[in-house]
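FIELD: query
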Amino acid sequence: MIVADSSAIIAFFLREEGWGELSKYMATTISVDHVVKEFYNSLWKAVNLKRISVEEAQRVLALFKDYVKRNMELRREEEYADKALEIALENGVTIYDALYMALALHEKIPLLTLDDKQRCISKKLGITTIP
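FIELD: result
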């Protein structure tokens, strides 16, 4: 099992550059429940920027919901907020990104992220990152 952050989840479901490489890591993931809000916001943004239609967004959302039910364990972000704040303050990263790192540290499992800054800080904290 791995922690999947929003950058990876969103890239996978919106089929952004490199999404195919992510598929081998997506069988079973864990994430903080905040990922759901970030996913919905990304769909909203993609529609507003006319990257996808409303109908496409609805189709992608249905796939995401099914994935969450079958393949993703969601954890309450409040459980990791204190550690996330510590990480954020010490490393100049957002609480949103730090939540994923706090979960990975707590579970002692790798973090799947496409965010270069998050990957760099994760490595500094001793978190294995993918890819």
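FIELD: remark
The first strand starts at residue 2 and ends at 4.
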